[in-house]
Amino acid sequence: MNQVTEKKNGALATFDMEADAQQQNLNISQEDQALPFLKILGQLSPEVNKRDGKYVEGAEPGKIFNTVTSKLYDTIDVIPCYYKRQYIEWQDRGVTGGGAPVATHEADSDIISQTTRGKDYKDRLPNGNYLDNTANHFVIYLNDTPQQALISMKSTQLKVSRKWNSMMMGIKMQGKNGLFTPPTYSHIYTLKTVQMSNDKGTWFGWEVLKKGPVGDKSLYEMSKAFSLSVGKGEITTKTEVQEQTKKSLNL
Question: Under a CB-based contact definition with an 8 Å cutoff, are residues 56 and 47 in contact?
């Protein structure tokens, strides 16, 4: 039993929070909660601009940012629970001014076959919109109290995503029937940022390092439950609004 005591009017009051846990918050469903994005801040991110209303104290390019708590990190430890690739449809910046995605298409749809490669190297639909091939990693991140979060990788970061997936699929364990590949939520990974560059510019990207197996049973069960919820479609996500910039770099 978890009990908390505090002094009140000179007396000690005892609260049994664990027993009351199921009696409260019954009307708050997953749809009423925001799933945090863990993203890398760049030079043009509003969080690093002191004149922007979204500025966050201490934010700088290369920091990892939690979009719900606004906390900043240099590295994060995560348990990957579910992977889902999608094509996100966007209008060019300035067309409507909203910066929100037009639509989300599943990876197994035929939407990519309807595109042609534009001069800007983007996959363009007949309506002029373009598609972002986006790898979504649903994770439990461990830097604070273990929480659900989403890491989205696209463009140059798709290579990092594929490498991460290969790391997970490459893990083998000895079972009673021989070697097997454990579920992705069996291991913890450390993510940090590194500077990258190509002929279009310089930016910060992800680096993924395997840390080790999950040793805590409750944490394993939490990760398993999150994986099952995402797989059943019980976890809804809302793609982040694109940052409005003077220059659209397909990095």
Answer: yes
> 144-147, long-range: CB within 8 Å, 24+ apart, which pairs?
144/69, 144/71, 146/219, 146/222, 147/36
Q: Is 48 exposed, middle or buried (0-12, 13-18, 19+ CB in 10 A)?
A: buried
Q: Is 175 inside a domain boundary?
A: yes
* Local structure of 161: helix, strand or coil: helix
Q: Which helix (H) or strand (E) holds 167?
A: helix 158-169
Q: Quote the number of domains for the chain.
A: 1
18 within some domain: no
Contacts of 224-228 spanning 24+ positions with Cβ under 8 A: 224/81, 224/183, 224/185, 226/81, 226/82, 226/138, 226/140, 226/148, 226/185, 227/81, 227/82, 227/138, 227/183, 227/184, 227/185
User: Is the sign of the CA dihedral 237, 243, 247, 251 positive or negative?
Assistant: negative
- Per-residue pLDDT of 117-154, as tens digits, reads 988 889 999 999 999 999 999 999 999 899 999 999 99
User: Helix, strand or coil for residue 200?
Assistant: coil
CA dist 191 and 64 (Å) reads 9
| pLDDT per position as a tens digit, 18-50 | 555 555 445 444 444 469 999 999 999 999 999
Strand 116-117 relative to strand 103-106, pairing: unpaired
User: Has residue 23 been placed in a domain?
Assistant: no
pLDDT band at 61 (very low <50, low <70, confident <90, very high): very high
Q: Determine the residue type at 140.
A: I
pLDDT tens digits for range 104-125: 999 999 999 999 998 888 999 9
In a domain? residue 243: no
Domain span including residue 159: 34-231
